[in-house]
Amino acid sequence: MHLTAVLERNERLHPAKAAVVHGEEEITYADLADRARRAATVLIEAGVQPGDRVAVMTFNTPGFVVAAYGAWYAGAVLVPVNHKFAAPEVTYAIDHSGARIGIVSGDLAHTATTGSPELPWLTTERPHDGLPDFDALVAAAEPLAAPVDVDSDSPAEILYTSGTTSSPKGCVHTHQSITALAPILAVTLGFTDRERMLIAMPIWHSAPLNDWLLTTLWLGGTVVLMREYDPAAFLPAVQDHRITAFFGSPIAYLLPLQLAEAGRLDIASFDLSSVEKWMYGGAALGEATARKLTEVYRSDQFFQVYGMSEMGPVGTALFPDEQTAKAGSIGRGGALGVDLRVVDANGVDQGPGGAGEIWLRADTRMVGYLDNPEATAESFVGDWFRTGDVARIDEDGYLYVIDRLKDVIIVGGENIHSQEVEEALRGHPRLTDVAVVGRPHEEWGETVVAVCVTTDGAPITVDEVRAFLADKLAKYKLPRDVVMADSLPRNPSGKILKHVLRETI
Q1: What is the domain-level CATH number for residue 417?
Q2: Which InterPro entries match (predicted)?
Q3: Which of 134-138, 193-197, 252-256, 361-365 has the lowest mean pLDDT?
Q4: What is the rounded distance in angstroms from the CA atom of residue 443 to the CA atom of residue 436?
Q5: CA distance 40 to 166
Q6: In this structure, are 142 and 77 located in the same domain?
Q7: Do residue 355 and residue 433 come from a single domain?
Q8: How confident is the model at residue 472 (pLDDT cuts 50, 70, 90)?
Q9: Which of 296-305, 332-341, 413-422 shows the lowest mean pLDDT across its residues?
Q10: In this predicted model, which residue has the larger pLDDT, 117 or 84?
Q11: pLDDT above 80 for 210
Q12: Which residues have CB under 8 Å from 83's CB, separation 6+?
């Protein structure tokens, strides 16, 4: 199914219903379809041909949604660009994707044009000196009579991976693979056309874009955009817009608690009763944190979701009644419509009590990495996508991610899972954040290094760390060195960029 067909269906069925809400602005399905057709005219008149790539670098604003659908109406391919990128990172994304034109929020235009000065840029949301105003051009354009005819198996998106273990790779998704997401998510999580989905996480990221924005619009629900996540404005937005569903990394839920502890926010004063699904991903929650969130948010409707950009993303889910009993798990098997295997280094499937790499298979999978056949070949075994995540399986069949395959530290032939050491260290009262990585060692192959952020910024010694862990982990797993840091590098999902840390230790 082509993505424009989804929008046109809801234009016919719900023309006056709000499709997108941003602040005081409300865009109906009829209005969104009209703007998308006008945006397509703007892009075509700028020289965009079927199959060309359109880069979009914005905050969570209507301009992103209009530009995305405009690209699809024009037969082009959307390239979402991280709005937090510095100029050299913009250069990489634009050059690697081969973008023909770019649309950028006015506040980000300086970075975009510095990173890619030769690319024609149009601005949205706020004008920027010297650049054409995309919103004004859309308003003045004639709407395209019909979508440019491209097959539903044609590329629709190039999504860049988080880059936790290497430089970002471009995942190529088709119209068909993206529209296959919505039925899986709707059935698994119980979405309906009544949804009022709050999107506060970056809209260019795979989950906010494909899982939540496009699935909500596929169903005929309403998407509420928060320009950027703000812990002080988050709960007021939930209350004022009568939000039914929200997705965020665990920190998005925890930051309001920190404001409350500092006396700057009264969480109990907000009416959050409209929310039927509090969803989180990017990291698991411990039992104590899960119980705390249930208490503070006055809801037991929390869902953990796990997936990869390469898969749409879809993968697994941990449901509300499993949050405390199976805290830290990503769920039991794949979501409906998703096959899952856990495979050891010898290619043998693992069951309860075993551990291995998670493999996924679904109709939502990418067709491959852009211009990278080697990485594509390494990532697939037939139809199965190798996630690179290592999981153990408990006696009930629930999966617990214990490491990235590339982050396993091998000391004297013994495998050490970095997340196991990190989890043990997180109980140290002087640590606010920690990551564990391997450092090359001539005799042992690698040695364990803990990168630590302390509560007061004062150094913590390796002897203190080893003493704390002495009764918790085998001796060979204990760090041999400690490196201090002011903060740890993370991607927008909250995952630590360990390949960056390895370069600095």
Answers
A1: 3.30.300.30
A2: AMP-bd_C, AMP-bd_C_sf, AMP-binding_CS, AMP-dep_synth/lig_dom, ANL_N_sf, ATP-dep_AMP-bd_enzyme
A3: 252-256
A4: 20
A5: 35
A6: yes
A7: no
A8: confident
A9: 413-422
A10: 117
A11: yes
A12: 57, 58, 59, 105, 108, 202, 204
Is 203 found in the same domain as 91? no
Q: Which residue pairs, CB below 8 angstroms and at least 24 apart, start in 367-373?
A: 367/155, 367/172, 367/173, 367/174, 367/177, 368/172, 369/169, 369/170, 369/171, 369/172, 370/96, 370/97, 370/158, 370/169, 370/170, 370/171, 370/172, 371/96, 371/170, 372/169, 372/170
Domain co-membership, 335 together with 192: yes
CA distance 480 to 311: 37
Model confidence pLDDT, tens digit, residues 374-408 = 999 999 999 999 999 999 999 999 999 888 888 88
Which positions ≥6 away from 357 have C-beta within 8 Å?
342, 343, 344, 386, 387, 388, 389, 390, 391, 405
CATH of the domain at 43: 3.40.50.980
pTM of the model: 0.87
Closest CA to 220 of 197, 200, 204: 197
> Do residues 313 and 369 both lie within one domain?
yes
ω before 313 within 30° of 0 (cis)?
yes
The mean per-residue pLDDT over the stretch 7-17 comes to: 97
Whole-angstrom distance, CA of residue 82 vs CA of residue 75 = 23
pLDDT at 162: 64
pLDDT given at position 98: 98
Q: Where do the DSSP E strands lie in 133-273?
A: 155-160, 170-174, 196-199, 222-225, 245-248
Spatial distance between the Cα atoms of 42 and 322, rounded to a whole number of angstroms: 49
- The enclosing domain of 271 has a CATH number of 3.40.50.12780
User: To which residue do tokens 């840029």 refer?
Assistant: 121
142 lies in the same domain as 192: no
Q: How far apart are CA 129 and CA 121, in angstroms?
A: 11
* Residues spanned by the domain of 457: 408-504
Position 385, amino acid: F
Q: Which two tokens stand for residue 7?
A: 């929008």
Of 149-158, 362-371, 439-448, where does mean pLDDT reach its minimum? 439-448
98 and 211 in a single domain? The answer is no
Q: What is the per-residue DSSP string for 353-364?
A: T-EEEEEEE-TT
Strand partners, 157: 78, 173
| pLDDT of 84 | 87
Answer yes or no: are the C-beta atoms of 469 and 424 closer than 8 Å. yes
